[in-house]
Amino acid sequence: MPCHSLPVVFSLIAICSLACISLPARANSVVVNGTAYGGNDSNGLSLTGGAISIFSASPIGYSQVGGGTAGVPMTLSFWVLPWSGMGYASVTVGSEFTDIVQGAGILFTGTFTVPFSAIATGTYNVPVSMAGQLSAYQDLTLGGGYTQGPLMANIVSTGTGVATLQLTDIGNGQFIIPYATFDFKGTGNLTIVPEPGSLFLLGTGLAGLGTMYWRRILFRSPA
Question: Cα 206 to the chain's mean position, in Å?
Answer without folding.
Answer: 33
